[in-house]
Here is the input.
Amino acid sequence: MAQSSRAADGFVSIPALLKRNASEFGGRPAYREKEFGIWQSWTWAEAEKEIESLALGLINLGVEEGDFIAIIGRNRPHFYWTFVAAQSVGAIPVPLYQDAAAEEMAYVMAHCGARFAVVEDQEQVDKVIEIQDELHQFEHMIYVDPRGLRKYDHHKLHIFADVQEQGRAAYWEFIEDLKARREKLDYDSICVMLYTSGTTGKPKGVVLSNRNIIESSRSSAEFDDLTRREEVLAYLPMAWVGDFIFSVGQAYWCGFCVNCPESPDTMQTDLREIGPTYYFAPPRVFETQLTNVMIRMEDAGRLKKWLFDVFMAHARKVGPAILDGKPVGLWDRARYALGNLVIYGPLKDTLGFSRVRVGYTAGEAIGPEIFEFYRSLGINLKQLYGQTEASVFITLQPDGEVRNDTVGVAAPGVELKIDDTGEVYYRSPGVFEYYYRNEESTAKTKDADGWVATGDAGFFEEDTGHLRIIDRAKDVGKMADGSLFAPKYVENKLKFFPNILEAVAFGDGREQCTAFINIDLNAVGNWAERNNIGYASYQELAGHPKVLDMMQDHVEEVNRSLAEDSMLSACQIHRFVVLHKELDADDGEITRTRKVRRNIVADKYADIIEALYDGSKEISTTTEVTYEDGRKGSISATLEIRDAKVVPVESRKVAAE
Here is the structure.
């Protein structure tokens, strides 16, 4: 009933929520952006005017209902306004990854038939111009930053501010048309189309309705008691569904403020200045921040290092319990309070987390030690499990039930089940409408009753009902002896080490498990500097004997952990190689969201995989690479292949018995 009444009140679209926010608390901040070192702010009333003038300008430019508008750029208020302006005129916003290569953009824009694009600067303009001949329906491009574009042909190229000004000038000509288009919007109207990362093929256009976005935003906001007083930092790719939910869906439902950093380089400084109360980051961000903390502590004075170690040991002991409201002794609480004064508080301020009330991580498994580190500081960090097709939320962790080895319970309004093969299924109001121009994939993913196949294998814990995810269902295989092979599970254990950026495990149908490893240049580079190890390139550092020794220690520690798991003990890594280059999205080896494209990696590095299994001690290889300017080249290297100690499974079983 509550859902129906909200719909009846008229809040059936993002533009309707904008109108409510401007009317009920128009003086509160809606957007902030740091530019040239200064924070600029727009209230909800001001944002409504900016969006209205842009919407009128789009109509003036010829945007029709049902048109697709590509959005390409970093997180800026202008692009969030574009989302809502496009919706207001009955068009469909389609955000693209700003760092995507021109050919990747060409596929998405051609697939949806985008007639218009709103981009950030000269770099994005040049990319679209490069592919323009492939886009037969494309007509006009709008850009925000005019630097370097003065001498371009402006017949179909327009400055963002000019489009708004033309909209204001044509107010009386088009305002009734705009009102009519807004009034047509309902719960079933398309809110946004987001493209999947395309790990196994071409990206698919996921069509999400107002119902999907608003219901998911409403239920998740109520779950965590989000209010209009929250502050979020919008820094994740706008083409990712998580940013759309946090920075558009929840922001408009709750009416809180979205803060846009000046650039990736100033993100940490801007994070500290804003002090968000609601924060999301993938595990890699938390891992990088912790790595930087530990690097600084290695260089700290003896007394400061001692204080840090003593108080952090106490925080790990009692911090999570205090956070969850569990009984903790008076003396332990007093020590923790002192630690908060001298260590935890200043550290949280340095990280920018001094005001975080709710924090989330998702996308990959986060290392248990990393997860507990942040919770021990008193940061309410939780895990969620979601997908683009679910409008993000499938499971959430309730306060007091936060665990590092599960993804929680079904999110509000979500039903879960697991089929006979172990694959997880869900249905909810957030379930996507369909894949654009792809009926076959839609039918394979969503059945007639609305159940969606996640593609992930998992199980429910009997005692808690929490969901545990093992791996991608398609990637779960069998070793030659019939033992379970779960590559993602193994890779995540490797990536728990800050020194390891990426890993790819092999073993399906094989007698042994092997792995590729990418070092984290920042973490290993700092280690090398502290240990007086010189290097001139990533390749040289990755192949250094002491670095290989470090990686071998990590692999063997993972093997000891795997040996304790009766289901996955056969996945211990027998041999590994540290690659001479990072897996790169520009080379097609990973997606823009850093998911490994296994088939491409297996084909591209087939010679190295063969060497891992034929007993070779080294392999000489040449690999094609893509430079920042798009040129192709190649790098050659001779890689050492290492054997790793494994724990004999039979002896472990005997010892256990």
Observations:
- The chain has three domains: 2-265, 283-470, 475-656.
- The CA atoms of residues 287 and 370 lie 7 Å apart.
- Confidence is low (pLDDT under 50) at residues 1-6, 651-657.
- Residues 283-470 form a domain with the Rossmann fold fold (CATH 3.40.50.12780).
